[in-house]
Write a structure and sequence with these properties.
This protein has 338 residues and is α/β, with parallel strands linked by helices. 35% of the residues lie in helices and 14% in strands. The protein contains ten helices and six strands, in the order αααββββααααβααβα. α5 packs antiparallel against α8 and α5 packs antiparallel against α9.
Length: 338
């Protein structure tokens, strides 16, 4: 990530936080100079209101070191988990009647949702940032703040290249196994086009974390499919459970993407170029999800109409009633002001 772009994002975030009455200043800033520019002294200074106890426990059970201090990731103004909580809040959130992406009405909220993907090690689950439920309609949220600008996308582990590691490696799950293998292989072939200077296959896109989303899709299928039900049930724990009966599921990537006009001329092009690549790679990913047969096996094995979306944080927030958080959440819009 361009260091000047990062500095500009820090400055813009701090300005908005100060405007809405939550400044990152000498009284709230982390005392270690290594973290001071973008870290609060206390993670609770970086969130709107107090966590419900159940939500705090959900974050503590996560695998991202969000609240444990080294320092806690949620202290950073660039924390995607803080963004997740700040946007969604406590208990439930209501999707507006006028929104174009989700079923209207009230959704309960579960953070750090755990989904089993493959038989590997101790069946370590994938963690989804948030799971929203409205009757038989669900929204699965993967939230990104600056990770898409700062970090290289991840690789797919070897376990996902062994058929016997898939929970759907049973007769009634043969179509699903074929579909997820097809999606994996289509993505591998696409990624092989982006060889580095040494001619090596990077095995990932440049910006879009396709493999993380692949695992989330596989996890949602596993936790709701008739083909995997018995085996998944045997692996259940207090915080890893089969999903309720669903009719509609939307997996949404929510990405912090401010308008390009907020940036200075010196960094605007780098930002726009990165955003263009991310959107192009998502389009490729979505095309292959549809081409592979994954959508069809969700309908056949799970009874679910499954879809995939990429929304900016601003677009996602516009779908919901944000109550008293609206001004505070300007920090995730960074709109140009006169």
């Amino acid at each position: 990530m361009d260091e000047n772009l990062k500095k500009e994002l820090v400055r813009l975030e701090r300005e908005v936080l100060a405007t809405c009455g939550h400044p990152l200043n000498e009284s709230t800033r982390h005392k270690n100079q290594r973290y001071a520019a973008e870290y609060f002294a206390d993670w609770q200074d970086n969130v709107f209101g107090d966590f419900f106890a159940a939500h705090r426990a959900q974050f503590e059970r996560g695998n991202g070191n969000e609240l444990s201090d080294s320092p806690a990731k949620m202290k950073s103004i660039f924390s995607s988990s803080a963004m997740t909580y700040n946007i969604l809040g406590n208990g439930e959130i209501r999707a507006k009647d006028s929104n174009c992406f989700f079923t209207q009405g009230a959704y309960t909220i579960e953070y750090e949702k755990k989904l089993l993907t493959v038989r590997s090690g101790k069946n370590a689950p994938a963690h989804l940032d948030a799971f929203l439920l409205n009757g038989t309609d669900a929204i699965f949220c993967e939230m990104k703040m600056i990770e898409w600008l700062r970090d290289n996308p991840g690789f797919l582990k070897h376990a996902y290249f062994e058929d016997t590691n898939f929970f759907s490696d049973v007769a009634e799950g043969s179509d699903a196994l074929a579909a997820f293998k097809a999606l994996r292989d289509l993505l591998c072939a696409e990624m092989s086009k982006f060889k580095d200077d040494n001619g090596d296959d990077p095995h990932h896109f440049k910006r879009y974390d396709a493999w993380q989303m692949y695992k989330h899709i596989l996890g949602i299928y596993n936790m709701s499919s008739a083909a995997t039900k018995n085996e998944i049930a045997a692996c259940q724990t207090d915080d890893i459970k089969m999903l309720p009966k669903l009719k509609k599921a939307v997996l949404v990537n929510v990405v912090f993407e401010p308008s390009a006009e907020v940036f200075s001329d010196s960094v605007r092009k780098a930002y726009c170029d990165a955003r263009t690549v991310e959107h192009e790679e998502f389009s490729i990913f979505k095309k292959y999800v549809e081409k592979s047969g994954v959508i069809a096996v969700f309908k056949k094995d799970c009874g679910i109409d499954f879809s995939l979306e990429l929304l900016t944080a601003a677009e996602f927030m516009d779908c919901f009633d944000l109550a008293g958080r609206a001004d505070y959440l300007q920090r995730y819009r960074l709109e140009k002001r006169s």
